[in-house]
Amino acid sequence: MKGKMQGLKTFLLMLLCLAGSASAEVAVSGRHVYILYPGVDAVWGSYLFLVSNTGTEPQHFNFPVLLPKETVDFQGTENLSQDELKLGPNGGLLIDKVFPPGDTLLNIGFQLPADKGSSPFTVSGNEAIDTLSLFVWQNSMQVEGKQLEIKKGVPFSGRFYDTYTVRNASAGETEVFTLTGVPEGRGRLWKIGWAAFALLCLVGITSAYLTRPKNLKAEEAVL
């Protein structure tokens, strides 16, 4: 599994390098890749993107990260320590890091909540996006959204992926997706069980009230 993930990252690094910008000394690639895995009432993901330093010296650079707004947990993994991840003034995530010359592939692990088999996935940024791609294990989940370029069963590194891609998103544009087919835990069963229990209690109390014995002394007084 580790070898397959390393091969996938190498492939993505080659892909992301195609979008490196030569107009700025340090810039974030316009290509963003999210590899998504189904959990129980949750979706786990790896967000990969490239930062290019076209200069000859290490450069300090900070910028907001395009993690989904619904993210409930995150952790830097590839070339990124936890202290280089900072919360922004509006609750978003920032990276504050010194980048060496050349291309640096960054990887952030994250978790999304799911309810009733679906999970929202919303991203928006200040910069234009060349491509935003969601890689999902084949037949594990589905992605719903507007203007998606969909490819099914894409083979790579011994595994097949379904890919969902948005191209040429404008700066400030919000991309909204819904992940469906997420495995459900017992949460819904517990809710249904408690609802049924409450209904049975209500029926029992109502039935007991309507069939309660009459007050004989009150009836005799009336007669």
Give a brief rundown of this model:
The protein is of the alpha+beta class and 223 residues long.
Can you give a write-up of this model?
The chain is an alpha+beta fold. Helices cover 21% and strands 46% of the residues. It is built from three helices and 14 strands. A hairpin with a 2-residue loop joins β12 and β13 (159-169). The chain is globular. Residues 18-23 and 189-197 have low confidence and may be disordered.
Q: What is the element layout, followed by pairings?
A:
Elements: H1 2-17, E1 26-28, E2 31-38, E3 42-53, E4 59-64, E5 73-78, E6 85-87, E7 93-99, E8 102-113, E9 118-124, E10 129-137, E11 142-144, E12 149-156, E13 159-169, E14 174-180, H2 187-210, H3 216-222
In round numbers, the mean pLDDT is 80
Alpha-carbon Rg, integer: 26 Å
Tell me the series of helices and strands, N- to C-terminal. Answer: HEEEEEEEEEEEEEEHH
| DSSP E strands, number | 14
Helix amount, in percent?
10-25%
Q: What amount of the residues lies in strands?
A: over 45%
**What's the architecture of the largest domain, going by CATH?**
Sandwich
SS content category: alpha+beta
- Distance between termini? 88 Å
Give the CATH level 1 class of the largest domain: Mainly Beta
Largest beta-sheet details: 8 strands, mixed
Q: How many discrete domains?
A: 2
Uncertain runs are 18-23, 189-197
CATH homologous superfamily annotation of the largest domain: Mu homology domain, subdomain B
Shape type = globular
- At the fold tier of CATH, the topology name of the largest domain is Immunoglobulin-like
Secondary structure tally, helices: 3
